[in-house]
Write a structure and sequence with these properties.
The chain is of the alpha+beta class. It contains 6 helices and 10 strands; from the N terminus they run βαββαββααβαβαβββ. Helix content is 32%, strand content 22%. The strands form 3 sheets. A 4-stranded mixed sheet has the order 8-9-7-10. It has a 3-stranded antiparallel sheet with strand order 1-3-2, covered by helices on one side. Strands 4-5-6 form a 3-stranded mixed sheet, covered by helices on one side.
Length: 250
């Protein structure tokens, strides 16, 4: 796992050379490091009495620096030119990825972006005792996906309320399932719950008051008066098409 030393010390012929050695080893920019000069160094006369410069340094923001270093090395391995911008607000680290054609970084339904976010969270939280929540976004995908899920849940809620049939959505990660649940929790006509095991867990939108349904005369069993069932129509509606959700990416 990536680690930054609490303090790093380098010796060189000059202060500037010592600083360059430190930045090269850390893989950080100068404004991300706090330097302290221990020995300024002396040139001496004809090599006599010469002293090398000694410089120490500490990383100002280990959390953001660790994330930047990890992601930069990852994208370099992937041969991608991606700029990484970070913003640390208390225990929340927001990371924005900037570059051209970031579709490969986002992946289908944001799967690749979520995986990168998970790995970055592991790296960041190995550097600190306090838990840091990491969110990574690219091309405003998170907001686009959120808006799509809100629109989808509203559309399906209307369909479920109208038909009286419950509807099972595609597998979603916990973050996306919470968006659906939260958006429909105050809906008077439908309710939501999740079924299945990770990573295939799905949200089900179900009517709060299922409608009675009429059984065909050809049914093997009839119950109730006039062919009406004593139960309710709770048949699950599984579509044969894919709902139109933004694919550019939780």
């Amino acid at each position: 796992m990536l680690k930054f030393p609490k303090k790093i010390e380098k010796t060189a012929k000059s202060i500037d050379e010592a600083k360059e050695l430190i930045l090269s080893e850390l893989g950080l920019a100068e404004n991300e490091v706090e330097f302290a000069v221990v020995e300024e160094g002396k040139k001496g006369v004809f090599g006599l009495g010469a002293k090398e410069a000694v410089v120490t340094a500490e990383v100002k923001d280990i959390v953001s620096s660790a994330a930047k270093k990890f992601l930069s090395e990852l994208f370099e391995t992937m041969n991608l030119a991606v700029s990484v911008q970070t913003e640390l607000n208390e225990n929340m680290l927001n990371i924005e990825l900037i570059g051209d054609n970031l579709g490969i970084v986002i992946g289908k339904r944001g799967d690749t972006l979520d995986s990168i976010q998970y790995l970055t969270s592991l790296v960041v939280n190995s550097m600190t005792d306090d838990y840091i929540k990491v969110t990574i976004d690219a091309e405003n995908y998170r907001q686009k996906r959120y808006d799509s899920l809100i629109a989808l849940s509203e559309r399906l809620a209307q369909k479920v309320a109208k038909t009286g049939r419950k509807y099972t959505l595609e597998p979603m990660n916990p973050y996306e399932r919470r968006i659906i649940h939260a958006n429909l929790q105050s809906n008077e006509k439908v309710t939501t719950f999740s079924v299945g095991e990770e990573p295939y867990r799905k949200v089900v939108i179900s009517p709060k008051n299922p409608r009675p349904y009429y059984k065909s005369r050809n049914s093997e069993k009839k119950s109730g008066f006039g062919g009406y069932s004593n139960g309710y129509d709770a048949a699950e509606y599984t579509p044969s098409y894919s709902e139109n959700i933004e694919d550019s990416e939780e």
